[in-house]
Every structure is written in C-alpha cells, then in structure tokens.
Amino acid sequence: MGVLGGWLIWIGWFEYSFKFFSELYSVPAFPVDVDGYAAAPQADMLQATITIMFAILLLYGVFNLQTKWAVMRFFHRNLRFSPGMPTPDNQRSFARITSIEVLFVTWFCYQFWQYIIDLGTKGLGVNVIMGVYLLWSIWAFYFVYKCARQIRTAAAIRYGISAGIVLWSSAEMPAHFGAYREYWLYPAEHPIFKTLTSIALLTVFVLLTRGLRSP
User: Which residues contact 191 (CB under 8 A, 6 or more apart)?
Assistant: First the structure.
C-alpha cells in the first residue's frame, strides 16, 4: 500500500500539479532543442524543487537517528554525527517509509536526468549524455539482478522500488529523444496496449499480496 500511495502522490501532487502551475504561469519550455529533445514546462518547474527536497532529506535523513537507509547510516557512522536519541515509543510505519522512498527515488531520477541533459546541451555534448545513459542502464540492470535474488516478498518489493524506477529511466529516456512514442501517455489512442498493461499490473499486485500473506 505504501508503494501505491507513493505512486498516487507523485502523479497527483507532483506531475499534474506542476503541469497545472506551468500553464497557469506560462512557464516556457526547455530553451534548447537537441536531437529531438525538448523538456516540458512542468519538468522545468520540477527542476527548481531541488532545494526543497534537499531540505526534507536533511530533516528526515541526516537529522534522523532512526533511519535505516544505508546511505544516511554511512554518513552518521563515518562523520561521527548523532542527531540525538530516537523518540520513545515511536514505531516505524513501513507504508509511510515506503511511500517516502518512492517519492525520493523518483524525484532523484527526474532531477538527475534534468541536470544531465541541461549540462549536456550547454557545452558537454550529446555524447556525454549517451555515456551517462549507458552507465545508468548498467546500474539499472544490476538493481534488477539484485532484486531477483531476494527471497522474501516484502524485501523484493522494497528493493524493487529502486530497481523499477531506475530501470524506468532507461526505458523512458530514448522516447524523449524521439526513439519511440510514449504509448502510456495516450491511453485513449492505444486502448489495447493500456488494457494489457493494466491487467498485467493488477495480476502482479494480486500475486504480491498473496505472497505477503503467506507464512
């Protein structure tokens, strides 16, 4: 449920709200068109959220001794930093934590590629973008490999958050450069494709739910 909640928050409160405000304030599109790529105005607005999300990461990551995030615990351990004792009787909500993971990993992937493309189109060159894309895809398939080796269903879902979102960037980036059309953005024009993917997603969700309930 945390995964579904994170998806709905990202799509409803991030993507569509940025699209609304970009049209309300007439935000211009990405000024440079390179090899068929031109970022949408809402993507430019998303790029401006980096300071806000870093502030949230600071409060809930760096200044949170209860975090189980390996990256934050690494910094706590090596920088000899302790933000204080945990709040007594404050139980961990795995649905809330999973939703936050979905939001932050998705946000990171969006921001990373926004800035890579921005730098690539302003001097570094398209070859740099392609090189980064190759390394990113190798990293994504490594995540999928590690996820496939998970034995417990809950652990596989948690690991699958990073694996799926990072791999999605590998699938989505070529479409931004005109390699193919993003069919999922036009459900009315491709009803068969949308129906099949919806059935597949629902089937996987049911199977995962049964796996979580099994001893």
Answer: none
d(CA 118, CA 132): 13
What's the token pair of residue 18?
A: 């940025």
3-state secondary structure of 105: helix
Helix (H, G, I), strand (E, B) or coil at 31: coil
0.85 cut: is pTM over it? no
d(CA 130, CA 148): 27
Is the separation of the CB atoms in 45 and 22 below 8 Å?
Answer: yes
Under a CB-based contact definition with an 8 Å cutoff, are residues 173 and 133 in contact?
yes
Q: Decide if 120 contacts 126 (C-beta within 8 A).
A: yes
Judging by beta carbons within 10 Å of its beta carbon (0-12, 13-18, 19+), is residue 46 exposed, middle or buried? buried
- Summarize pLDDT for 150-200 with one digit per residue, the tens: 888 777 887 888 888 899 889 888 887 778 888 888 888 889 988 998 999
